[in-house]
Amino acid sequence: MSLKPHLLARFTLLAALLLVLPGCQTLGGWFSNQEPATETLPVEALYAEARQSRDAGNYSRAETYLTRLVARFPFGPYTEQALLDLAFVQYRQNKHEESEATLNRFIRTYPTHAAIDYAFYLRALNGFDRDNFFLQRIARADMSARDLTRVQASFEAFAELLRRFPESRYAADARQRMVYLRNFMARHELTTGLYYYRRGAYVSALNRARFLLETYPQSIYEADGVALLAASHAALGQETLAADARRVLALNAPEHPYLDGRWPQRPGLWGQLNPFGGGR
User: Fold this and answer.
1) Residue ranges of the chain that CATH labels 1.25.40.10
2) What pLDDT does residue 110 have?
3) Which class would CATH give 38-114?
4) Which of 19, 55, 152, 234 would give a disulfide with 242, using CB separation of 3.0 to 4.6 Å?
5) Rounded to an integer, what distance in angstroms lies between the CA atom of residue 123 and that of residue 29?
6) Using CA atoms, how far apart are residues 10 and 44, in angstroms rounded to an integer?
7) What distance in Å separates the CA atoms of residue 222 and residue 190, rounded to the nearest whole number?
8) Can you give the pLDDT at residue 3?
9) What's the topology of domain 116-280?
C-alpha cells in the first residue's frame, strides 16, 4: 500500500528532524561547554577566570568576565579590583573612552582606595595614547599642527596625578610624559609661527614666537622660538629688536643654524622634529 504524496512528504520531514535533532543537542552542548556560565559562577570563580584571561593576554574574554562580575556583584573587594582590571583590559584594547568611564566610576566610588593613584595614572594614559602621538610622528604626520585640545587634556590629567599624589610610584613616568607633551605643545606654536612667517604674516609669526617663549620656557624649542622672534623682527624692519634677539640666541645656542644665515626648506621628517634643523 503506497502513501499519498502529502503524507509521504510529512513522513520524510519527520525522519529528517529525528536525524538532525540529536546532532543539534550535541552541538549545543559543545558550545555551552566552551565557557563557564557567567550567570551562575560565584564571584571568586568569576574573578579567577577573568584574571587568568587577563594574564594570558586574552583581554576580550577578561572583559566579558569582569563586566559580568561588576554587574552581578556591585559591591565588595572583588568588585573594587575588578573595576581596575576592567579599565586596564579596556585600555589594552584601545577602548579609551570605555576605560575612562570605568576609571571615573572607580574614582567616584572608591576615592580613598589604596590604588587610587593608579586609577588617575591609567586615566591619564588613556588620553595620552588616544591619538597615538608617537606612531603619528613616525608616519610623518605633523601632529603638532593639529588641534591641541586632547594634548592639553592629557597634560592636565598627568598634572592632576602629581598634585594629588606627588610621591606616587607613577609620578616619575608622569613627569616624563608631561615633558614630552609640553615640548609637543611648544612645537605646535613653532610650527604655526613658521607657517605664518613663510607666508609673510610676520606679526602673527612674532606673536607665536612670543607665546612659545612665555608659555613654554626651557622647552627644547626655546632657541627656535628666539630665532623666529629675531627673523620676524627683521622682516618687519625692527632691526634693534632683531639684534637683541640674535644676541640672546648667540649666548644660549651659538650653534643654531639661524645665526649662520641658514633657513629651513619645506620640512621633511627631521624638519618636523626640529623645524630649524638645529641638530638637537
Assistant:
1) 38-114, 116-280
2) 95
3) mainly alpha
4) 234
5) 41
6) 52
7) 9
8) 47
9) 1.25.40
Which grid coordinates are listed for 184? 609637543
Q: Which amino acid is at 268?
A: G
> Would you call 270 helix, strand, or coil by DSSP?
helix
What are φ and ψ of residue 38, in 5° steps?
Answer: -70, -15
* Long-range interactions of 201-207: CB distance < 8 A, separation 24+: 202/232, 202/235, 202/236, 203/232, 203/236, 205/231, 205/232, 205/235, 206/232, 206/233, 206/236
Task: Tell whether the torsion through CA atoms of 37, 38, 39 and 42 is positive or negative.
Answer: positive
Q: Which residues contact 161 (CB under 8 A, 6 or more apart)?
A: 117, 120, 121, 124, 168, 170, 171, 174
| Digitized pLDDT (tens) for each residue of the chain, 280 residues in all | 454 555 455 555 555 554 544 444 443 443 344 455 788 899 999 999 999 999 999 999 999 999 999 999 998 899 999 999 999 999 999 999 999 999 999 999 999 999 999 999 999 999 888 765 554 554 445 555 567 888 888 999 999 999 999 999 999 999 999 999 999 999 999 999 999 999 999 999 999 999 999 999 999 999 999 999 999 999 999 999 999 999 999 999 999 999 988 765 444 433 444 444 443 3
Residues 6+ apart with CB under 8 A from 221: 183, 186, 187, 189, 190, 212, 274
The answer to whether 253 and 223 are in contact (CB under 8 A) is yes
Nearest CA-CA partner of 263 in 275, 248, 249, 251: 275
- Nearest CA to 64 out of 76, 54, 74 is that of 54
What is the pTM for the complete model shown? Answer: 0.73
Give the span between the Cα atoms of 180 and 173, in whole angstroms.
Answer: 11
Q: Alpha-carbon distance 59 to 52, whole Å?
A: 10
